[in-house]
Design a protein that fits this description.
Helix 1 runs parallel beside helix 6 and helix 2 runs parallel beside helix 7. The protein is an alpha/beta fold. The longest helix has 18 residues. It has one domain: TIM Barrel, CATH 3.20.20.370. The two termini are 23 Å apart. It has 7 helices and 11 strands. Strands 1, 2, 3, 4, 5, 6, 7, 10 and 11 form a 9-stranded parallel beta sheet that branches.
């Protein structure tokens, strides 16, 4: 992965914005902590999409502590309500066509309230739908409830709702496939490099619950490149909300450090 991505960054005419988004916080806490240790050591920003119904009091306490000491690098936001599929056929979706506006609104509001009660003052106005899917009604409800950013996969068509920004991920670390076969580490690098050449922002979607030690080691290599390369500009997701303005987050100076189930 690193060779094509490094080459694309070497050729970039200007710094390229990148962000890391890890989904399914609430599942496999120990694997989540292992992933966070990597980004913390590299002093990189990362955004966690938290499943409200899956978050334990212990996890909430741990995330609050890590957020406080992260100096703005750890972002916390809502990942649906229970990560439950409500479609009787077709692709899995928690906020899909089988659910009307009132039901979607109740669930999103309930999840928001649960997160804010557990993490007061730390929950950002961002929403990542489970399986990276939702409907136009979902987007309208998000705007009504005061959420400002929807983050899905770049393959999903933009909803185009005024007042709701969309910041998609393009590189799915654990589940990206071609012709039904999971992409190799090198192929993921080519995908990331193509996004760099488009000018970014480059969103990398992680799923810590399915990342073993080998995957974490490779992720550490990626983080080493992002932390050290002068043309890589890692940012929190919310800093990309208004890309035409200077992002409100300035990453601190970093010293160089040496170096399946259906997606959620």
């Amino acid at each position: 992965m690193l060779v094509p991505l490094r080459a694309a960054l070497d050729e970039a005419p200007a710094p390229v914005n990148l962000f890391l988004r890890d989904d399914d916080a609430g599942w496999e806490d120990e694997r989540l902590y292992a992933l966070l240790e990597i980004v913390e050591r590299r002093e990189l920003p990362i955004d966690l999409a938290i499943i409200p119904r899956a978050m334990s009091p212990r996890l909430a306490e741990e995330l609050a502590l890590r957020s406080t000491r992260s100096e703005g690098r750890l972002g916390l936001h809502q990942h649906g309500l229970a990560h439950a599929n409500h479609e009787r056929s077709g692709r899995k979706c928690e906020f899909g066509p089988a659910r009307d506006r009132a039901v979607q609104r109740d669930d999103i509001r309930a999840g928001r309230e649960q997160l804010e009660a557990a993490l007061p003052g730390l929950v950002q106005p961002i929403f990542t739908p489970p399986w990276n899917r939702c409907t136009g009604i979902t987007g309208e409800v998000l705007r009504e409830l005061g959420l400002r950013v929807l983050s899905r996969h770049a393959s999903e068509a933009p909803l185009g709702i005024t007042g709701l920004g969309e910041i998609p991920v393009a590189v799915d670390w654990s589940y990206a496939k071609r012709a039904g076969v999971r992409l190799s580490f090198s192929e993921l690098g080519e995908l990331a490099a193509a996004e760099v050449r488009r000018g970014g922002p480059v969103g990398v979607n992680l799923h810590h619950a399915v990342m073993d030690r080998r995957e974490l080691s490779r992720f550490d290599e990626l983080c080493g490149l992002l932390a050290a390369h002068p043309m890589a500009r890692p940012l929190p997701l919310l800093a990309l909300e208004t890309p035409r303005r200077r992002p409100p987050f300035e990453a601190p100076r970093r010293t160089r450090v040496s170096a399946a189930r259906e997606p959620s």
